[in-house]
Amino acid sequence: MFLSNVIGLVIALAIGAVGAVIAIKFKFPAAPFLGPVLLLGAYQVLFGSLASRPMWFRFGVQIAVGIILGVSFADISISTLKGLLKPALTICFIMVGGGLVGGFIIYRYTGWDIATSILSVAPGGQAEMVLFAESVGATTEKVLVLQFLRSQLVMLVMLPLLRIFYKDEGKELEL
C-alpha cells in the first residue's frame, strides 16, 4: 500500500510538472497552478486515482505559500501601508460581504455544506482558496471549479475593459 502510494505520488508529480509546462507554454492564467490541476484532474477522471492526498505534503505546500506571501512584504514601506489602509479595508468589507452573500445563496440552493459554498465564491487566489478548503474539510473539487470559473470570467471581462480604459488615457496595454 505504502509503495503504491509513493509511486502514485511520483507519477502525479511528473504529470503535474508536464501540466505546468504545457499551461505556461500556452500562457494560461495562473499556469503553474492551473496546468497541474487540469492535467492531473483529467488523468484521474479518465484512469482513476493515482494516490491519496498525503497530509505532510499539503502541510509543506501551505508553509511554502506562507513563506512566499510573507517575503512579498519586503518592498512595502510603512507609509505605503498607511496610505493603503482605508481603501484596503473598504474593498475587503465589500468583497468579503459579497462572498458571504454569494456563499449563502449557493448553500441555500445547492445543498452543499456551508464551508464549500462560502469558499467557492470567496475572493482570493485559486490556490489559496483550495488549500484553505482542504484544511477546513470543504469539498476541494467544487471550490476549485468555481474559483477557476470566477477567475476566467474576471479575465474575460477585465482584459477588454482595461484595453478600453488604457486607450481612453492614450496608453497601450501590453500583455
Short description:
It is built from seven helices and no strands.
Spell out the blueprint of helices and strands.
Layout: H1 2-25, H2 31-47, H3 55-71, H4 78-110, H5 114-121, H6 126-136, H7 140-168
Helix pairs in contact: 1-2, 4-5, 5-6, 5-7, 6-7
Task: Describe this protein's structure.
The protein starts with a helix and ends in a 7-residue tail after the last helix. The protein has a domain at 77-175. It has helices at residues 2-25, 31-47, 55-71, 78-110, 114-121, 126-136, 140-168. The longest helix has 33 residues, at 78-110. With 175 residues, the chain is mainly alpha-helical. It contains 7 helices and no strands.
Features:
single chain, 175 residues, mainly alpha
The pLDDT mean sits at 86
Uncertain spans: none
Distance linking N and C termini: 47 Å
Number of strands: 0
Overall form: globular
Helix tally equals: 7
Kindly provide the radius of gyration, computed on alpha-carbon positions and rounded to a whole number of angstroms: 19 Å
SS-derived structural category: mainly alpha
- Note the run of SSEs as H and E: HHHHHHH
> Helix fraction?
over 70%
Largest sheet: none
Beta fraction: under 5%
